[in-house]
Amino acid sequence: MCHSTDTTRQSVTTMQENGLTLDALIDALAERVAAKVRAELGAGGLSATVGPRLLTVEQAASYLGRSKEGVEHMVASAKIPTVRIDRRVFIDVRDLDRLIDDSKVTGLR
User: Fold this and answer.
1) pLDDT tens digits for range 45-102
2) Do residues 95 and 82 touch, judged by C-beta distance below 8 A?
3) Phi first, then psi: what are they for 90, rounded to 5°?
4) Model's pTM, two decimal places?
5) Cα 21 from chain centroid (whole Å)
6) C-alpha torsion angle, residues 64, 43, 28, 3 (rounded to 10)
């Protein structure tokens, strides 16, 4: 029998002697990980969902709360850069986020 197997069995025996089972240890670890993920989500550190980075014009319009024609106008006037792959036109979600951030103002104008 190899040394690592002996060490593993000794660890399991020690855990059982202390009233811990492998299942209890795994459950406790999973709960701690889940608590950290919940805390990060609540603090805005992690995104709850991961979406595509490249959006169609229609998806970009939905993302911005604009019409498809409005986004097409913003693309034509070079307010939003595009990514062209083959014959398809996409808009990088990071560019949309940058547009939103750059358009923020404080107070009323």
Assistant:
1) 665 567 899 999 999 999 999 999 999 999 999 999 999 999 999 999 999 999 999 9
2) no
3) -125, 160
4) 0.54
5) 34
6) 90
Q: What is the pLDDT of residues 9-58, one digit of tens each?
A: 777 677 677 777 888 888 888 899 888 888 877 776 665 567 899 999 99
d(CA 13, CA 17): 6
Q: Name the one residue in this structure whose structure tokens are 């995104």.
A: 47
Q: Annotate 19-83 with DSSP letters as a single string.
A: T--HHHHHHHHHHHHHHHHHHHHHTTSS-SS---SEE-HHHHHHHHT--HHHHHHHHHTTSS--E
The answer to whether 64 and 96 are in contact (CB under 8 A) is yes
Long-range contacts of 61-68 (CB under 8 A, 24+ apart): 63/93, 63/96, 64/96, 64/99, 64/100
